[in-house]
Target: 2-oxoglutarate dehydrogenase E1 component
Amino acid sequence: MSQTASVYQAFGANSYLFGGNAPYVEEMYEKYLTDPTSVPESWRDYFDALQNVPAVDGSDARDIPHMPVIAAFAELAKQGTTQVVAAYGADSDLGRKRVATQQLIAAYRNIGVRWANLDPLKRAERENIPELDPAFYGLTDADLETVFNTSNTYFGKETMSLRELLNALRETYCGTIGAEYMYITDQTQKRWWQEKLESIRSKPNFTADKKKHILYNLTAAEGLERYLHTKYVGQKRFSLEGGESFIASMDELIQQAGARGVQEIVIGMAHRGRLNVLVNVMGKMPKDLFAEFEHTAPEDLPAGDVKYHQGFSSDVSTPGGPVHLSLAFNPSHLEIVNPVVEGSARARMDRRGDKRGDQVLPVLVHGDAAFAGQGVVMETLALAQTRGYFTGGTVHIVINNQIGFTTSDPRDSRSTLYCTDVVKMIEAPVLHVNGDDPEAVVLATQLAVEFRQTFRKDVVIDIVCFRKLGHNEQDTPSLTQPLMYKKIAQHPGTRKLYGDKLVAQGVLPADGPDEMVKAYRAMLDEGRRTVDPVLTNYKSKYAVDWAPFLGRKWTDAADTAIPLSEWKRLAERITTVPDNITPHQLVKKVLADRAAMGRGEINVDWGMGEHMAFASLVASGYGVRLSGEDCGRGTFTHRHAVIHDQNREKWDEGTYIPLQNVADNQAPFTVIDSILSEEAVLGFEYGYASNDPNTLVIWEAQFGDFANGAQVVIDQFIASGEVKWGRVNGITLFLPHGYEGQGPEHSSARIERFMQLAADTNMQVVQPTTASQIFHLLRRQMLRNLRKPLIVFTPKSLLRHKDATSPLSEFIKGGFQTVIPEQNADIVKNAQRVKRVIVCSGKVYYDLVKKREEKGANDVAIVRIEQLYPFPHKVFAAELKRYPNATDIVWCQDEPQNQGPWFFVQHNIHENMLDGQRLGYAGRAASASPAVGYAHLHQEQQKALVEAAFGRLKGFILTK
Model:
């Protein structure tokens, strides 16, 4: 067998290079094309032989056809060893060993992490991984002094003996930092990691002062936990003991980020270590924390929340200048804060005009079990590089206590090797690091921040540590994990280990670590701030002034009409398309109709009413951000906010957004077709709205029931954020709702759920039924000095319903009507003859009007409740008083009796009824499903409920 054949035998025999590591081979080939002398001789021989040409110099290398070689790589992988050997002949020992060293390098770069020294408890023996043993590639002890070409590494030598190479690889990839990055497609990023890690062999070289500072962070982290443990016995705090290196990581992250130009850091984390971050990273006064433990803190919120869910903000000094820190409020749904933080970061970026995330950095802190187990993690990661949700990369830190909540066996806590494996879906690199090596943790943090600032991508620091106490301080974890907690009981603590190390190095005197402990304890006893320096008087010019929106009482009043001249000007701007854009024929018709609506020639439909609201807002300086699945076109093709050129030749060209062109100095209009996610996208938009009160932030569900997938965001943030945390938020939800015979999953947006959550004037729940109503409603949301979440049950069939259109006059005067009174002039004129008032909300109104006309029931008035919460008592009571002879009040709804608004409006209706009046219900019977799935059954039910609204009261009757 020839020497050339031996190269092919070695490569073909090893699936490691010809399987998932094909990109590595391609990387070597790219270097070969640029300069054949830049790759080892064995690789040069390999590529020359594969191309069937003699060795060439650099000038000719670029002339080698590229794709045939790549195709040959794939074909060789399919063929396997037998065919390769048959094709290329006999073995050569020298060539085989050269290739073997390259395979060994690739193996350590790929899976060296699996031999890394990561567990502070040292519970598991090193697993047998043959690919990390030189013998796997036919190399023996006799080869240890053989010198090989290592120019494709960054160890600082062109050649190294096998012994030197092996030591360098193990120091770099199998020490207390285990790196995963070889799955990254981008070769520049991979080479970046190779250079950064291999050039220093994954070992820091810190000054004595730096080491002392790291010890101080460990001392502060441990000191606070022990202080609280002895002073507030039995109170839950979710201790960080066992993971103290996390505080060193956070401190380093802030300083490094500030030095690299970051001016704002938005942090999201669950409760493990949260109190420690508040005091030892963000500079919260210890006395203020102690007051919360002692229940003497001011209680000025209707509900409030526990101390380990509280947010905080501060400004700290860094080498690059002041950095604003913001810790997001977070409920017990551990990872749900992730998209909220990302949205908050994006709002801050947009406010600064920071397109790349140079100045704003999101940081997410995770627990190992939650990171691996909760789906919102994946959904949030999927947003990372999309245009509408890009935040310039997130630094993720995992406090990996190896036990999660109560489970320590990975077979039960996840289905992946590492808890971080989910991030491989976006090719984010991971640095696993032993929490007992705080210097390695700090180094990993430095590299992570530098990578993020260089490539604007997510990066993960997985701090492998332990949890000294239970999930909370009242647990006894040894009940279920006796082996682990025997190890933990014997562990002296990270601070002690590192303090002893610095004493041994001569960095500190023998009593140095203990003196540091005493000094920190004195600060706590005196209630002094432990972080220096915190900037108490600094205020950024980009800070948002929420003062105009705080402490405001509810009001329905707002001047939302616009002058006729402005209406016509805006209408012309949003219906005019540049000559170089050719809209679809259907869109041309929509634009022509809208132009006619703008001139007052025909009534305004829903899409035009919505567009004019947006146009008038951005022209007045209020931004509009609309996102969700299919938002640009609109699920029911009513919006057409984005005009697509039908003659475009490239997918990323040829679109025009009229609402971005309504005025010379307008506010931004942003419309985003989101990824197929509800939970993460809604969380993102809530976070955005929480940091921009001057932008109308809207999330639109494709169908209203899709909000089911985002219920945690609705429950924990939208409905309760203000009463728990005092967080004012004006997010708007568009939830298409209406019984159109489309089955259980496409009928109901679950009005009853929002009504159940409504209290303390925490939100607005509305169901508008005309184009002018949506126009005035959206303008009201921004023009009032009031920010409350707005839940809009938008229609489907009404989008094109002739009777749901509005005349131009309703836009240039008037405002949003919380109650729409009877519209039949004859009935209003002869109110004394009305015997029944039907009260309803939504689409069913039009069915009722049609039925009344069929029956000639002129003694029945129909009143629409457009705002279900806060219930408009004053206006509604005035409507009922119009009909003093009405004996029956009927609530009619499309939804089943146990769903929809019925159980939540009945007491409000009853409160405003006149003496002697009776209240009854007309609608579907109670049902476990939101709607039936059979079209004929839907029609029968719809017919029956409308008929019942005019018939004799049956079943439940409430008398005033």
Summary: Confidence is low (pLDDT under 50) at residues 1-21, 51-65, 74-91. The chain has four domains: 3-183, 208-525, 564-810, 821-959.
